[in-house]
Amino acid sequence: MASIHEVKAGLAQAMAHGGATIQEIRAAREMLEGIMGDVRVLGAGTGHPHINATINACEQGLEYLHEVSNLIYGANEATRNYGDRLG
């Protein structure tokens, strides 16, 4: 059985991984926003359905990434609270 110190160290490592993942998702969101901006500029005035489909897919991806970030943040908070309860 793991000691409290080992459990707390494992929790800290999990939170660090969660924080790093949130940063990576943030970077992915910025890249996706850039792609969406580029597509809007390149497709301005064309009205081509593929441009609209691409923008819609990017917007949906941004929503998913935002949701995932919130879930990971919530998991980190729960992990922190558990670690605090351990003393």
Structure description:
The chain has one domain (4-37, 47-86). The chain has two helices and no strands. The protein has helices at residues 4-43, 49-86. Helix 1 runs antiparallel to helix 2 (49-86). The mean pLDDT is 94.
Structural class: mainly alpha
Low-confidence stretches: none
Q: Mind summarizing the main beta sheet? A: none
Q: List the secondary-structure elements in sequence, H or E.
A: HH
Rounded Rg: 19 Å
Q: Helical content, roughly?
A: over 70%
Shape: rod-shaped
Q: Give the N-to-C terminal Cα separation.
A: 18 Å
Which tags fit this structure?
mainly alpha; 90% helix
What is the element layout, followed by pairings?
Blueprint: H1 4-43, H2 49-86
Quick recap:
The protein is 90% helix and 0% strand. The chain contains two helices and no strands.
